[in-house]
Amino acid sequence: MSAIEVAGLEKSYGQLRAVGGVSFSVRKGEVFSLLGPNGAGKTTTIEILEGLRRQDGGTARVLGLDPWHKGYELHERIGVIPQGFKFLDYPTPREAIAYYAALFNRRVEPDEMLRRVILEDAANVWFQNLSGGQKQKLGMALSLVNDPEVVFLDEPTTGLDPQARRAVWEVIRKLKNEGRTVMLTTHYLEEAEELADRVAIMNHGKIVAMGTTGEIESKFGSGQKMMVKAKDDLLTYLRENTKLQVEGEAGTVTIRLRDKDDALVALGAIEESGTDWGDLNVKRDSLEDVFLRLVGEEGREEGTE
Q: What structural domains and CATH numbers belong to the chain?
């Protein structure tokens, strides 16, 4: 059963078409990640689903509700962490949770909520003195005060160091284990690979690929490749003596493998070449390889991992 249904979603700002006919669904209890470079339309799509923006065309339903027309009812059932979560400087995490609980008229034990997001050690620290990772975890705690069925996380780890990022990942895994639906936007590919059941890659307002990471790698990747540390002599030999697809860069010869026979041919030719070679490994295109192929230099400028 779907927690989110989107069909033909459109949104423009003047002449700029930010979202151009996007369609997808998110199953209840899954982590679904939107990937894409800046300006791809991720945040606009999320804000429409949260009821913060009104679409120009298409339909959006979250938990069966129209986010724009049923916003109040929907906000009782969803949690949201916007990009660059901020709060007042002087409340402590314990005080912030108590404040949010009063706003939602919920009975919440602040210390238990802090334990859920691994923030109990900073319960009495002013917000302005929290680290970046601690601030994000407080944002996640506040998004859970109303016991939401769907949680929207818009680039929750941007700017965090690797240790803080992985601490936030652990909280997201807990949300999934609790059966909550998580809608995650990120431009960290490693993050999507670690956390998401399915991903959608957006570019210029459209979804250009969607599925599990394995499905996307299989459909849009270039297959397996054999990588050999060797000088250009091996590259020249393989090009002159085989029909293999061969490339060379920075002391590495890359051989595209269409099937197992290509692997056997490549190994035989490497041995027959009589050239010096070092490490050899076989790999398949990663999500990052596919991402960069689909979005080009825009994705590279994002600093994808």
A: 2-77+148-219 (3.40.50.300), 223-284 (3.30.70.120)
